[in-house]
Each structure stands twice: as structure tokens, then as C-alpha cells.
From TrEMBL:
Protein name per the record: Inner membrane protein YgaP
Keyword set includes Transmembrane helix: yes
Domain Rhodanese: 14-106
Keywords (A to Z) from UniProt: Membrane, Transmembrane, Transmembrane helix
Gene: ygaP_1
TM segment ranges: 117-135, 141-162
PANTHER family xrefs: RHODANESE-LIKE DOMAIN-CONTAINING PROTEIN 15, CHLOROPLASTIC
A Pfam family assignment: Rhodanese
Length: 180
């Protein structure tokens, strides 16, 4: 997989238009993003659709960015698996972009998804214990179910609860736009 440093990409952006796709959630994108980035969340990323809608031709690479580089690496793999190999992962992601003093757009702060997952999981575990104690012992199965889900998420890197919470209305940007 090809990679590029944020400063090298910024230099290319000053020379002409680059296709920079930010694969973070819309609320993360709204909080802060590289000035030249477009938001296409990883979970809804269709490599063929992105490649088909390009404005600067297929000869130029598609640059992929996220917060730190992990999700954009997954996005690169999606493109490569779809037969589109001219993709480049931006090293260090938006964090490195902002730290380098490159132009960013800042907007409304968001409550981080993983914090939302932790609060929800903790609430469901406590609820299962309380209901199990006061209502019926079978309610402790709720706590067991949440625990099993956390073990699954930790061992596979896939978190169904995070996917569900990410689709909640407060984690979406209204009007189809995630700009400030």
C-alpha cells in the first residue's frame, strides 16, 4: 500500500486539485478536517462509486485520510480489493495534518463514538444486574450478552454496538452536509 506524508500531500494540493477522501464518521469530519477533504464514511464507502465520480481523472491517485491512518488503511484495502490500485494512505491522518499547521476546517465538537459505546455498554450491564436482582434472575443474561459482545468486538475489531450507535441521528449531520 502506498503512503504519503501530510506535508507532501499539502504541496500536491497547492499545485492542483487532489481527491482527498476522509473516511471518518460525519460527526468526526464536522469537528475538524483537512480543508480539501470530502467525507465518505468507511462503513458506506463504495470504491467503484468514488472512482466513478472523480473530478480530476483516473490517472491521479485517490488519497485516503482518517484520524490517525488506521481506517484509511482499511479503506485502501477496500479499493485494492475492488481492483482500484491507485490509492494512497495519508500517514498520521487528520491529527498529523492539523499538527503540521496545514489548513483545516473546524466545526462543532462531537461526543466520541467509543465513549458513547462505553456509556451504553456500562448502562446495559448495570441495568441487567439491577433487573436481575429486583425483577427476575434471568435479566442478568443482558449483562452476559453485553459482555460477550465486548469480547467479540475486542477479538475481531468489529463492534456491532458501535455500528448501531454510529447510525443514530445525533451521530449524523443534518441536511447531507458535514461542514462547520
Amino acid at each position: 500500500m502506498q503512503t504519503i506524508d501530510v506535508k507532501q500531500l499539502a504541496d500536491k494540493a497547492t499545485e492542483g486539485e487532489v481527491d482527498l477522501i476522509d473516511v471518518r464518521m460525519p460527526t468526526e469530519f464536522r469537528e475538524v478536517h483537512a480543508e480539501c477533504a470530502k467525507n465518505v464514511p468507511l462503513e458506506s464507502l463504495d470504491p467503484n462509486e468514488v472512482a466513478g465520480s472523480r473530478s480530476n481523472g483516473s490517472a491521479e491517485p485517490i488519497y485516503l485520510i482518517c484520524r490517525s491512518g488506521n481506517r484509511s488503511a482499511q479503506a485502501c484495502k477496500k479499493f485494492i480489493d475492488a481492483g482500484i490500485e491507485n490509492v494512497v494512505n495519508v500517514e498520521g491522518g487528520t491529527t498529523a495534518w492539523a499538527a503540521a499547521g496545514l489548513p483545516v476546517v473546524r466545526g462543532k465538537k462531537a461526543f466520541p463514538l467509543m465513549q458513547q459505546v462505553q456509556i451504553t455498554a456500562g448502562f446495559l450491564v448495570v441495568l441487567g444486574v439491577v433487573l436481575g436482582y429486583f425483577v427476575h434472575p434471568y435479566f442478568v443474561a443482558l449483562s452476559g450478552f453485553v459482555g460477550a459482545g465486548l469480547m467479540f468486538a475486542g477479538s475481531t475489531g468489529l463492534c456491532p454496538m458501535a455500528s448501531l450507535i454510529a447510525k443514530m441521528p445525533w451521530n449524523q449531520c443534518g441536511g447531507g452536509s458535514c461542514s462547520a
